[in-house]
Amino acid sequence: MAMPISSSSVARIATKPFDGLVRSASRSCSIGKIHGDRRTRHASIRAALITEPDAFEVGRFVGSYGFMNITSYSSFQSGGFSNANVFDEFSPGYSSEDMERLRVQDVGEGRVKIRLYEGRVIQGPLKGTRVIFKVYPGRRAGGVEADMMAAGELSAHVFLQSDTEKICPNLQFLLGGFETKMGEQWLAFRNDGKYSAANYGKSVSEANSKDTAKGENFWNPFIKEQKIKRRRIFVIKLLNGAMNGLAYMHDHDRLHQSLGPSSVVLNTMVEKDASYLVPKLRDLSFSVDIGYSSLGAAQSTLSEGLWRRASAAGAFTPLEKRAYGIADDIYEAGLFFAYLAFIPFCEAGIMDSISLQRLLENTFQLDLQAVREYCLADDRLLEAVKFLDLGDGAGWELLQAMLNPDYRQRPIAEAVLKHRFMSLVNL
Questions:
Q1: Whose CA is closest to 263, among 177, 195, 348?
Q2: Which residue in 421, 355, 339, 415 sits closest to 388, CA to CA?
Q3: Which residues 6+ apart lie within 8 Å of 270 measured at CB?
Q4: Which stretches of the chain score pLDDT less than 50?
Q5: Which residues have CB under 8 Å from 327's CB, separation 6+?
Q6: DSSP-assigned letter for residue 197
Q7: What pLDDT is attached to residue 212?
Q8: Residues 46/158, Cβ–Cβ less than 8 Å
Q9: Backbone dihedral angles phi then psi of residue 42, each to the nearest 5 degrees
Q10: Residue 213 is inside which H or E element, if any?
């Protein structure tokens, strides 16, 4: 485990100006069709970023994680996981050939290892603000891919934060960062929560197992009923927040492309505090610009997999590629929805994200009615079935739409937010 880094040691190693990367990232933001004078707004957000290492104090090491990248193609029947590079979780999408048969991709472990540290701002108007540092390794340790990922994440946040009048509450907020002598990129985000949806799912499923072992659910059916009701409200609100962040990104011509349980930050995991829950999307390293001017430009290495799948699905024109990219994000969001619908309502070890994805894609070929019938026969999955049955099957209806094998038939994020299932938060 890495040792905590003092602010003085950071100051000694951080001698390279961060402004160069900020300017480079800003130039990589395609102007697209987003509102207003972008040059002025990008200059404004660049000026607002804190780029001096002395302005930060770095605290304890929080953890580290890697990502998965594409190594080859394989057939749908052979299993595997789709979509390009993602963090922590296999965040799937899909591609289709001429016969609209699903295909997926094998994945391998990438070279880039991300480190996380707590910290705070110690100078300027934001003095005292808590931050989370996301540290990308230098080129020697992480290769050119690490630089591309850091620049991609910085570019996405600079672009999405450029509209200062409409900052989305469901996106992690970048405060600044700096570069070290070793070429490491330290991005500083406002610390709005230390938990992820993956932490929540794991914690709740383990609690379910403990309750069963103690016989609590058997002897106290009223307590169980209240817990389930609170859990349903919490999960629906979590999904609402994540989809609101995704809708904002799509409205501003950006794809997420690595959406999964680990890429959604929570400020609380306490289900009684659902009214205070504010989920935020993070991990925008693989975010793709889908402004029309960018769709006709040279492709980034990190988005090659997306556009290869788009071509395989028959999406060739800028309009078709844009629609495919948005639908690909919705598919990922659909798998995230499935995760939220099952993992928190099952005991630990009954279901995980990988086995759930295999069940949906491989075993039942995205036939959600068949999935429901299968789950009904297993008492351990009944609470998940009951959750998706709410609103006369509204959950299954929405999940089927988001996971539609035909990308042209999937709803946009705004339509997902307006679906009747999403209004059941007050049940």
A1: 195
A2: 421
A3: none
A4: 1-15, 22-40, 69-109
A5: 407, 408, 410
A6: H
A7: 82
A8: yes
A9: -65, -40
A10: helix 197-214
Q: Nearest to residue 156, comparing CAs of 248, 28, 251?
A: 28
Report the C-alpha gap between 39 and 48 in whole angstroms: 14
pLDDT digits (tens, 9 = 90+) for 309-330: 999 999 999 999 999 999 999 9
Quote the CA–CA distance of 175 and 293 in Å, as a whole number: 28
Query: How many Å apart are CA 289 and CA 162, to the nearest integer?
Result: 15
Give CA torsion, residues 258, 17, 158, 306, to 10 deg.
-30
Residue whose tokens read 């829950």: 277
Are 133 and 58 spatial neighbours (Cβ–Cβ below 8 Å)?
Answer: yes
Query: Which residue type occupies 224?
Result: K
Terminus-to-terminus CA distance in the chain, angstroms? 45
Largest CA-CA distance found in the chain, in angstroms, rounded:
64
Residue type, 42: H
Cα separation, 17 vs 11, in Å, equals: 12
**Hey, what are 353's tokens?**
């994200």
Whether 152 contacts 300, CB under 8 Å:
yes
Whose structure tokens read 């991005």? 187
Query: Is 282 in contact with 257 (CB distance < 8 Å)?
Result: no
- Contacts for 288 with CB less than 8 Å, ≥ 6 apart: 254, 255, 257, 300, 302, 303, 306, 325
Residue the block writes with tokens 């880094």: 5
Specify the pLDDT at position 45: 52
Average per-residue pLDDT in the chain?
Answer: 81
- Residue 369 has a pLDDT of 96
Using one digit for the tens of pLDDT, what is the confidence trace for 237-246? 999 999 999 9
Residue 82, both tokens: 């789709």
| Distances from the Cα of 43 to the Cα of 16, 40, 126, angstroms | 20, 5, 19
Quote the CA–CA distance of 268 and 283 in Å, as a whole number.
19
Residue 175 confidence (pLDDT): 96
- Please tell me the distance from the alpha carbon of residue 179 to that of residue 157, in angstroms, as a whole number: 17
